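Re: the request from the purification team.
They wanted to know what the chain is likely to look like in 3D before they choose a buffer screen. I agreed to run a prediction and write the result into the notebook, where they can find it.
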Amino acid sequence: MKYIHLYILLLMFVFCTSCGQNQTSVPKQNNRSHRSGLSESQLKEAAASKVPMSMVRNVRQAKNGDILIASYVGVYRYDGASFTNMTSTIEWPTFWDVLEDRKGNLWLASQDSGVYFQPAEQNGFMHFKAKDGTGISSALHIYEDRAGNIWFGASRYDGKSFRTFTTKGGFPSNNIRLLLEDKTGKLWFGAQGENMFVYDGKTFTVLKNNDGKAFKNVWSIIEDKKGNIWFGDVDGLWRYDGRTFTKVSQKGAYVIIEDKKGNIWTTGEVKLYGNVWALSRYDAKSLYNEKPTVTEIMLIKEGALLGLLEANDGSIWVGSMNGVYRYDGKTISDFKSKEGQK
């Protein structure tokens, strides 16, 4: 009964289709250069590099403390001393996310090649392929729910097979890119270019602010230690306390995390500065003030700042369009530089 909300959802949707048949189409691999913003020669250089040099959408941490980095042309592991490209034998996928699940299995999400899987304490990857009926065609986000199911947007892997929820049977969207299961069992969904909605075990509800406007194009959703839901859309950073939606900031919030001290960190565009992207920290002591104290840790004028992680040692890792940075509270390390690679 503990996971009743999740199981009711799965039972309701007899319309589930397997193998990602209704996934939105993705660009072919020969458009890889165009999608990354890099030339073919730059892509080859990035793929051969000992450090991440291409777009980093997500950064995670393994159970042993290693940093896992999903870069566009490879998934890297950083052990505190050096980087290892774990996917050097996989040719030309475009990686968006990486996750080590509670059993120690490793999952990789790629935009154009679906899902890769490495069992715990083993080498090599299994490729779940849509074309032969064992997987899905595209995966941009990986999420493990409390029951141990692995989700890739609206596609769920239960340990045996993939199933994809679609609008044909009443699911609100075919463009789900992220999911959150909160402490009460509710499921929060963010859809690309579409409304955010929540499932309470019985009903799907499109979320709307105090003006009746729906939240669209949500890129990140988290639940903080107090049970508040934080998310970012095209209008800025929002907080929901179960009754009221509060707009915390107009700054973009592409990715949101809460650190051990209760501070909220975001990456996102700051249009006030002329389309500059920022790594921002919202002070825990002032989060509920009308104007929270915000510190801009890092600003870049070209490209974007993307994935975020607080590592076990308290350092903040942030992905960018051409690699990964680490902030230790004083210094920002750029691992593309010779100094940062040490």
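For the purification team: Confidence is low (pLDDT under 50) at residues 1-31.
Please add any questions underneath this entry.
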